[in-house]
Amino acid sequence: MTDAPPRTTKKLETLSTEGPAEGPPPRGPLGKLKGWAKRHHRALWWLHSFYALCLGVMVILFASKGFDHARVLAATLGGAFLVMVILFRIFGQGAQQKTRVEEKRSLKISFLGMTYVLKNLYQGMLFFVLPFYWKSSALDSLNAWFVFLLGFLALLSTLDLVFDNLLMRYRSVAAVFYAVTLFACANLVIPAFFSNVPTLVALLTSTALSVFGFWLLHFPLRTLTEKRTWVLLSSIAVVAIGAVYFARAAIPPVPLYATHHGVGVGPLEDGRLELEVTRIHKKRLEELHAMSDVVMPGGEGDRFRHVWRHKSAEGTFRWEVDAPVVFKSNDQTVRVTSSLPQSEIIKSNPVGEWVVDIVTTDDQIVGRMRFTVIE
Hints:
The chain is α+β, with helices and mostly antiparallel strands. It has 2 domains: about 45-250, no CATH class; about 255-375, Immunoglobulin-like (Sandwich), CATH 2.60.40. It has helices at about 5-15, 30-40, 40-65, 70-90, 95-105, 105-135, 145-160, 160-165, 170-195, 200-220, 225-245, 345-350, and strands at about 255-265, 275, 280, 290-295, 305-310, 315-320, 325-330, 335-340, 350-360, 365-375. A 5-stranded antiparallel beta sheet has the order 2-1-4-8-7. Strands 3-10-9-5-6 form a 5-stranded mixed beta sheet, with no helix packed on it. The longest helix is centred in the N-terminal third of the chain and has 32 residues, at about 105-135.
């Protein structure tokens, strides 16, 4: 007959099947602070996101002071690209990135530090360009969508949980995010460095730069020494440039923006109108003129025209009229004017809603005005 095992052994075996016991509670002020931060880490991240959003508003106010600060974006773009290249080269993406970050505490700290720097760079860029695109767009026209897209991306850059777990977790998502940001910023930076560049030239150049930036985030630099890489890059760039060219009316022509529009009668020598109206009788259409004040901080690289449109029961009619500069001020503002062209359609049925767009000769909308013709 054998002796029964001691009770203490049975107790130890039972404990081992239930898993390891929890460690002692943190001691001291620092330990309690770490414990509290761990329990409320999500709430703290959301609080930091709100703080980042407030900083973004401050950046908008700073950018509203003038176009001269746009050159700073070039350095910020380069810094963001460098950080992203290093991040994905070291940590990889997806599950591989998560595994590497969790392996060592030092890698996790480095990853959080790099994503924090990257978030701040993106916030600075996107909130900086936002007021320029806002001023250059007509919110009731086709190009308003791009402003809301930039606003959405700027908001995402302030959301730490989304940025760390989605935007910086996968290379393709990060590359698209960077390519759109690069496109928006380069479209503003190019006129800041090179005066009198037409907005369409800056737009297409920005498209090519975005394609190049997207490529570099996905493929090693050594591929640039291969001829087939340049053939492929050129082909993709040509397709992207062609697509943006046909969609140019849907993108605001930064840095141009209109400060005033008017439709009325009695043009003065400096292009102003004696009387601006929103409703006019059809008998006065022969005297109707349109004027627009356009600020050109990047130089006088563009020319303008007015597009008059009238929607009636018979359909929508459109007239394009050149709008030459009749007055220049010292603050880079030009005033352009045009007259409503006379035609049998206008004389027969002009009653209803009218729209006059101020557009560049490359069909990018700078501003819009509306008026009504009555009987």
